[in-house]
Amino acid sequence: MVKIWREFERFRGKKEPCLTAIITTKGCRWRKCRMCSYWLESRNLGDEAIKEQVDIIFDRIDTKILKIFTSGSFFDEDEIPGQIRKYIAERAKEIGLEKIIVESRPEFISEEKLSDFEGLELEVGIGLESANDRIREICVNKGFSFSDFLSAAEKIRRMGFRVKCYLLLKPPYLSEMEAIRDVLESIEKVSHVADVVSINLTNVQKGTIVEKLWERKLYRPPWLWSAVEVIRKARGDMEIICDPVAGGKARGPHNCGRCDREFVSALKLFSVTQDRSVLNLDCECRYLWEKYLELEEIARIPLF
Ligand code: SF4
Ligand SMILES: [Zn+2]
Q1: pTM of the shown model
Q2: What is the CA radius of gyration of the chain?
Q3: SS3 category, 251
Q4: What structural domains does the chain harbor?
Q5: pLDDT, tens only, 94-151
Q6: Which protein residues have their CB within 5 A of the ion that is ligand 2?
């Protein structure tokens, strides 16, 4: 039920191993974002079954950092009841865990729930996707506003915890150029409240509107060049991470096929080192990407 694997995280400026766990819960309550079908993995489990999964994680952990995700919201009572969240915080303190990373929609984040984690380094990821309310609403159908995000982020910061802001590169209905511009503008607008920005490159998930558009050739996942472009142009004082899920596949972010693996590795390496020089990449397809950006702008009527 619980999925567990090891990966690397950037922690206090260094690359550190991290245990990542995805607990099966009732899943996201919202379930309406146009690119997401994570909630398909959900199951209506009782509290005991959730606690069993938590115990498995703490039996396996041998890293300083734990990412504990739910394919929904960690702070939603319906997914993780309060007493299990408290239990997680206690066990984390017992074993001297140095950092715990969770995710939640903003409406579930409260000072009271956050206070269980006092004494630990907590990082809360929020899927803002775009700082532009119209893009978030029309293209993503996210169901919360930029000010909802800001007030949750401020609560997290006031408690001394870290905010991770997820931004979506290329939601449906945006051109590649608009998508690049939107992420760059969003980074600027969240820079005063986010400790780290995670750029999520849209991939085509089953049963979504994005999949329907993709099947009709009305949507192409972002070019990996676009992710590199965003990072190169983004302000230098913002920590940025990018792990291209399904990178190089038809349903994931991709370039020409020949250079995809190199680009995915470079983006992952950049995420743990923050060294922009690892993104000095080249391939013949750069020209194609540039033409794609240019021609798409000519051929379409801008929505925003
Ligand atoms: S992106 Fe997040 S909020 Fe939207 S449906 Fe998926 S899990 Fe829920
Ligand atoms: Zn290429």
Answers
A1: 0.96
A2: 19
A3: coil
A4: 3-299 (3.20.20.70)
A5: 999 999 999 999 999 999 999 999 999 999 999 999 999 999 999 999 999 999 999 9
A6: 255-256, 259, 283, 285
